[in-house]
Write a structure and sequence with these properties.
Blueprint lengths: L28 H8 L4 E4 L4 E4 L5 H8 L2 H5 L2 E2 L1 E2 L8 E2 L6 E4 L6 H14 L10 E5 L5 E4 L4 E2 L5 E2 L7 E8 L11 E7 L5 E4 L6 E5 L13 E3 L7 E9 L3
Antiparallel strand pairs: 1-2, 2-14, 3-6, 4-5, 6-7, 7-16, 8-15, 9-10, 11-14, 11-16, 12-13, 12-15
Length: 244
């Protein structure tokens, strides 16, 4: 398995609370709040998974959902070239999506900066924001954000950058838990054998790292978007990568 030769986050920012190899570590809430205005709630350790209840403000969510891209631009989702050699429609994923341009608006630029500050990287490491839409019955099966997930649970590291080091998935609308639509980590189970799930709430984000301390894909962060049973679920992917 190939390894990423070197991954370091700056030590003069919130990134100092990340280990040098990219692992998300527990963040002192007061210091993080002072640096970014965000509070991270740790919902799992080893690997560390965080929830931020108010990553986006209501005004920011409205801006995204009132944009012309959101109203007219959704297309059938596919597996993109960041994890495969070429874009292709994937039967494991039947949602639709739309991209926003880098720094397309002042609000989009602010969201990109917030994500970069959270990880202590420059804003150019943040990929263009992607909004996804799930109608009743639609889902995104088990997958890994960095590379191809094989049947044996292993993950292939892409040969070349950009490779997605961290993920922020933001929910853009409320979904009642009885209607599904959660983000589930099937390999992260509690003592009762129940997997970790994060349920949609407008403005809330789930945050995790896609690599191990050795620079290989962290197979523990395999996750899935559970089917939405009623209504519609909207979410936004914010990825940082190692492209220089």
């Amino acid at each position: 398995m190939r390894q990423i030769a070197k991954i370091f986050f700056p030590k003069d920012s919130v990134g100092k609370y990340l280990s040098r190899n990219g692992h998300l570590n527990p963040v002192p809430a007061r210091e993080l709040a002072n640096a970014t205005g965000l509070f991270l709630q740790q919902v799992h350790a080893s690997p560390n998974i965080y929830v931020i209840e108010d990553f986006l403000s209501g005004q920011e969510v409205d801006h995204i959902m009132q944009s012309k891209e959101f109203r007219k631009g959704f297309k059938k989702s596919f597996t993109d070239a960041a994890t495969h050699l070429q874009n292709k429609v994937d039967s494991n994923r039947d949602s639709s999506f739309v991209w926003f341009g880098k720094m397309q608006t002042s609000v989009i630029a602010r969201i990109e900066r917030r994500a970069s500050q959270l990880f202590g990287v420059t804003a150019d490491r943040v990929e263009p924001l992607q909004v996804v839409k799930y109608r009743p019955g639609q889902f995104f099966g088990r997958h890994h954000d960095m590379g191809v997930l094989f049947d044996d649970g292993s993950v292939e590291l892409p040969e070349r950058p950009p490779r997605r080091l961290t993920t922020i998935f933001v929910y853009l609308n409320d979904v009642d838990p009885s209607n599904g639509g959660s983000t589930r980590f099937p390999g992260l189970v509690n003592e009762d054998g129940i997997p970790l799930e994060v349920f949609p709430k407008r403005g809330k984000a789930v945050v995790f790292c896609n690599i191990t301390g050795e620079g290989t894909p962290d197979e523990r962060t395999v996750h899935e978007g559970c089917p939405i049973l009623q209504g519609v679920k909207y979410g936004m992917n914010i990825w940082t990568n190692d492209k220089r």
